[in-house]
Amino acid sequence: MVARDFGIIVGLMCSFxxxxxxVILNFHDSSSVNDxxxxxxxxxxxxxxxELKKKVDAICIGPSAPAGYSRLALVTDLIPKISQKLxxxxxxxxxxISRISISTQSRIIKISDFEQSIKSxxxxxxxxxxxxxxxxxxxxSETIHLLDKPFVHAISGMDSASNQKGHLRINLELTxxxxxxMVPVVCVLKxxxxxxxxxxxxxxxxxxxxQNIVITQKDITFYExxxxxxxGDIMGRTxxxxxxxxxxLSKDLLAPTIDIQKGAxxxxxxxQKNVSLSASGIARQSGAIGSIILVENAVSxxxxxxxxxxxxxxxxxxxxxxx
Length: 323
What we know:
This protein is an alpha+beta fold. It contains five helices and 20 strands. Strands 10, 12, 13, 14 and 15 form a five-stranded antiparallel beta sheet that branches. Strands 16-17-18-19-20 form a five-stranded mixed β-barrel.
């Protein structure tokens, strides 16, 4: 009990000693930090007992400027804050200036320093074969300021199996000392694919065949239409408009597929609960599978709308409309 009481008394005496004499701070006119926070020991020198010095050293003045930049601090603003945190009187020495410039140390890196990582990321994410793509970094010369400390990086911004091509905007994520920095990256993904093109000038309503189309390598980097990779998807189709030699065959250039011609005999099908009814009919419109056309019952001559579900089959929603 005596030893403990003695310790308490000594501690109180130290506290009174600290309180009796103010801490005199000599603020530097400028200083630099390599941290996201500024501490009192970064901007001022002072003398104090060891126990108090630890407390003074731990006082945080505030956040530092971004790496490579500076911020100003007014001594008149700092003194009352420091006094409050220490719980004792604090004064600035007569040699101290009124305003302090605090710069944040930095290391300068370029986006191009991560070019290989960015290229590998794009190659991993793209749906195009690696043998058919070329990568180019556009803003690789842009610089980034970081603290002169270790950091980690990651790349983001593309979905898996992505069909993106041409100009890409992805992200370079830098993490250092608990802070995250997102840097925009601009690059170009060039894509050259084997596509079908016209061998010569073709006219509207021409039928595509092995004599008038050919597969060849084409730069489709900025080609936005839906092109064909399989010959079976275009053989026998007709053109919706005339095209010149070398034109890439895309879906918008082909006339719609007609599965049922106007006037053709069709089977009208109606499903009611577990019963399927059918009747003979006549198509009053042309259309492809999936489209809605008008049909006529060959016996009752009732007209109704139906959905083409097969080469000669049309589904009717309500039996009474046509049967």
